[in-house]
Predict the 3D structure of the following.
Amino acid sequence: MTDKPTLGVGMVGYAFMGRAHSIGWRTAPSVFDLPVRPEMRALVGRNSQATAAAAAALGWADTETDWRALLDRDDIDLIDICTPGDTHAEIAIAALAAGKHVLCEKPLANTVSEAEAMAAAAAEAERSGVRAMVGFNYRRVPAAALARELIAAGRLGTVRHVRAVYLQDWIVDPQFPLVWRLRKDAAGSGALGDIGAHIIDLAQFMLGEKISGVSGLTETFVKTRPLPEATPGAAGLSGSSRGTEVGEVTVDDATLFTARFAGGAVGSFEATRFATGRKNELRIEVNGSAGSLVFDMESMNELLFYDGTEPDQTAGFRKILVTEPTHPYLHAWWPPGHLLGWDHSFVHEVRDLVTAIADGGELRPSFADGLQVQRVLQAVLESAEKSSSWQQIPD
């Protein structure tokens, strides 16, 4: 029996998302029967000593201090981008031009123009069999994928309402340092792009429809923060290191917007880092003419479903425990009732990416999907700058 072909992976960045992606690359081959065998060949970071320590801890065979070195390595077939948004376009476009497949963390870029260039590069590369995907990992939570299946099957009838929130509180303290996620030059936007992008993509994924227009507002509650001490490889989510000087916060702390979907449904979206007591609450409710469903990441193995066709005497929301082998992704895991966690979404992401690369199948979310989310983000910002005026989303 011959060995499976390999897929050499190089990853740029090793902080928060880099650690999560590493779990995906390490674990997917031991859970799923993949058509090719991913090999974690090189980790890239600017600080050689810190990168070597991260590579040893995360399971990478080699290190580089410049991502451009990956472009010339014959043993690297795919480049995984886990860096701040201001670097995504340069790395992804160069990688695709070099014939490397690309996995890029969300949001795709910091601006629509960057995202357009990336989507164009991906479309050109795909003609030669080179693939690209955006890392919207919440699509890969089994309960969220089941929600999409139920909506597609018509179990909710005509969808009318979507309510989506993503609530965090990690910068409530005014003394939390000015990390890169709070600077527009590095992050593009604040809560909107960081966590709002997730609920935009997830809502569109569940409905199978694009958002066609928005009206939004943004707020920055804390205008200045202490500058962080220099910390190699800092994740951008830790408040343990701050200096005595202060700098300006140039992104939103909170964003709210209303939306209309192409099929006619209306939606409300809220993304904030100032929901005191909320650590990472992502919740989406969808109401239709024949039923409703609720997905809550804090109960990520469950889906609440209301069947509006049942008699009043027995109708009510019921909890579906999404652990059956017939549910999305669950055939490869544990017996029913044994729960999965947040990190498993990255394992599923690797499984879908590697399989599509090997068999040429559909690969979503594509860079075109990432561009569409970027257009929604931009429209929300433009609306907020124009007294919440209605903004159409370019198709």
